[in-house]
Amino acid sequence: MSRDLLKKYIEKRDFGITGESKGKVGKRAKTNLRFVIQLHEATRIHYDFRLEWHGVMKSWAVTKGPSYDPADKRLAVRTEDHPMDYNDFEGVIPDKQYGAGPVMIWDKGTWMPEDDPDKMEREGRITFTIEGSRMKGQWHLIRMRTPDKRENWLLIKSKDDFALNKTKNADFLKRENTSIVTGRTMDEIRKAGLGKTTKLTKAPN
């Protein structure tokens, strides 16, 4: 039954064409949980924010990207669960495929939930701490009460030592615009073509 977690993911893709992972539910860990953020130039540019839980990556599309300013409430639209090895996907999803366009691994690391994630998800407020290269400190995902067919959440930074004011946060995403794994720009990823889920060369120091 655990494979049902990836049912929507599998139904949306033709794995004879795309280089994305075919999908496999991993072990259910409760410590050293992984997270990844992938910058994705599909129909609209967005940041795919993913948290490991129940052997898959729970996913949200953050339309304007994360903000270190606690005053910003960034829309995060819930999307289908992804397989954990999708964390290593960087490249181009082919034309006429779901999500066609280049994908960059923008950040990755570990996350720690403040409470039981299932309980927090039911209550509509997931509070967690992230340890990545670009994302750090405490964050919140808060579910919105709207009649929209989509499951809309808000990604909000906590007021902690990592928070920035509006002025200091303004150029954050413009400045951090290369792959955390390969060091490539989005244009370089696009020119390289078809992506595959594989072990990638680390970015130069």
Automatic annotation (TrEMBL):
InterPro entries: LigD_PE_domain (IPR014144). It holds the Pfam family LigD_N. Residues 38-143 form the DNA ligase D 3'-phosphoesterase domain. This is Bifunctional non-homologous end joining protein LigD. It comes from Nitrosomonas communis. The lineage of its organism: Bacteria, Pseudomonadati, Pseudomonadota, Betaproteobacteria, Nitrosomonadales.
